Amino acid sequence: ATQIFAISEIPSSSSSRLWLVSVALMVQSVISSSSTYQRPAPGGGGKRTGFMERTLILLDVNTRSPVQVLNDNFLSLQLDPSIIKDGWLDFLSSKRLVTLARGLSPAYLRFGGKRTDFLHFHNLKNLAKFRGPGPDYYLKNYEDDIVRSDIALDKQRGCKLANHPDMMLELQREKAAQMQLVLLKEQLSNLYSNITITARSLDKLYNFAECAGLHLVLGLNAQQRNPDSSWNSSSALSLLKYSAGKKYNISWELGNEPNGYRSMMGQTVNSTQLAQDYTLLRTLLQSVRYYSRAHLLGPNAGRPRKNAILLLDGFMKNAGSVVDAVTWQHYYMDGRVTKVEDFLKTRLLDTLTEQITKVLKVVNSHAPGKKVWLGGVGPAWAGGTNNLSDTYAAGFLWLNTLGMAAMQGIDVVLRHSFFDYGYTHLVDQHFNPLPDYWLSLVFKRLVGPRVLAVRVAGLQRKPRPGRVIRDKLRIYAHCTSFKNRNYVRGSITIYIINLHRSRKKIKLAGTLRNMTVHQYLVQPYGTDGLHARSVQLNGERLLMVDNETFPELKPRTLRAGRTIAMPPMTIGFYVIKNINAYACRK
C-alpha cells in the first residue's frame, strides 16, 4: 500500500488542510489510474522500473502571503582587515574585482573580522610607510608601481578603476603568499599584530564599495582602553571626522566577538561595559552631524555558546535600543578538516537552526522585532581548507545557510569573505570566481527578499522509519527578485539542495501544478566532482567573458507538468513563471 508522510512541519490552517486533501486526491488518482502495484520479479525481462517504485516528492508553495520579508541586501559580503597587511587593498581598484563585487549588489560590505580590534587609524596620506613587508628583491620597484598606480587613479573622476599589469599582479601574489603564512600562524595561535589603516587606505576601501554598489560597514577597534577599562574613543573620533569630511556613507560597529577577548588579549569586557561602550559610540555618531543618523550594528558576538549568550543577554538588556540591528557570527567547522564528507553531514547543516533559535530567543526577550544579522558566516574557521572550502562541496553549506537564515527571519547574512587570504572566499587571488561566487550570483539574480512556506510530501513504496527524505533534500522558496527583468512580478523561485547519492524526482502539486518552469541547475564542471573549483549551469561552464562582462545565465525550460529530476549531489534553482502569486505581486 502506498503511504503519505509529511516531510516538513507546517502550521495547521484551513489552507493547509485543503492542500493536504488535494495532495491525497492527487495520489489516489495516480494509484487508481494504474493497476495494483506488484513488485517486479527478479530479472523481469528488462522492463523499466514502475513509477510507484521510485521516490517521488510532491511539492507545493503557499503563495498567499510571505512568512518573512528580508532586507534587500540579504546576501551581503565581508572583507577582512588582513588585506591591508598582505597588500591586496591596493588592488581593490581592479576593474575585474569591482565588476565581480558589483554582480552581488545591492549588498552591505562589512570591513571587519578577527583583526578589527587591532586596527589603528592614522590620518596620513603616506603611500608606503605603513605597508607590510615584501621580498627585498622587488620591494622598491613594487612600491614604485603602487605609487604610480595611485597617482593615475587620483586623476580619475568618479569611480577610480585600474587594469593592473600581469607582472604587478604576479609580484603581489608572491608577496601575499609569504604574508599568508604569517596571517595563518596568527589565526591558529590567536595572537595578532596591529594593523594601521591610513586615510589613503580608507579612501581605497570606500572607492571599492562605492564603485561596486555596496554599502560599507566599518568595524572600530574596541580594545583601545582607558585605565578604568572604559573604551578610548579618540582614534574612532578621528576616523569619524575624516570620513564625515569626505562624506562617506558608512554604517558602524564596535569590536569583533567580544566574548573571546580573554583568549585573544588576556582581558575581558563584560556586557555592562560593552553596553556603555556602544552608548558612547552612539553619542559620538550624534556629535558628528554627518553621522547623526548612521546605523550602528552590534555586538557582533561569537557562536551562541554559554559565554556568548550571557554577553548577548546582558548587552540587549542594557543597550538593545542603541543598535539598529543585532549581529552575531557562525562558522560550521574547524578549518583543519580534511574530508569532503564533512561538508555533507545533515546534522552539521542543522546546527545553524539551533544557533539562530538561541539568538532570536535572547533578542526577542528584550527587543521584540529587532532586526538580527548573521554578521559573519563561512564554511570553516582558521582560513578554511584548500581544495575543500573553496570548492563545489562547500556550496551545499552556503546555500543551506541562506535558506535556513531566510526561513527564520535573519535580515542579513554577511559572507566571510569576498576576497582575501585563506580558502573561504568567493573570489581567488587570480580574480577568478569560485563555486560559491556563482551560487551567490544566481541567488542574487533569481531570489527576492520575500520568503514563502514550502509544503512537501513524499510518496514511497516502502517508507523506512527513521530515514527522512527531507534531511538530504532541502527545499526553499521565495518570490522571484523584482530586479530580474526576465520575470514578471508574481513569479516564484524554488531552490533545492539534493545531498542524496541518487536522483530525486519532484512533482509540482497544488498551485504549482501544470506551470512552466525555468531550470538553473548548478553542477561541478570537469572530472574533480565535488572538489571542482569551476561550475556549469545547465551543462555550460560559467566563465567571465572579460573583466567587465558576466556570462549569460541561460535557463532550461521544462514543459508544463513535467517532473523535476534532481541529479545526485547537485543544486538547482527553479523559477515558476506566470503563476501570478498573490504574495509576490507588489
TrEMBL record:
Signal peptide: none annotated. Belongs to the glycosyl hydrolase 79 family. It comes from Oncorhynchus tshawytscha. InterPro entries: GH, Glyco_hydro_79. The gene is HPSE2. This is Heparanase 2. The lineage of its organism: Eukaryota, Metazoa, Chordata, Craniata, Vertebrata. GO terms for molecular function: hydrolase activity, acting on glycosyl bonds. One of its GO terms (cellular component) is extracellular space. Pfam families: Glyco_hydro_79n. GO terms for biological process: extracellular matrix organization.
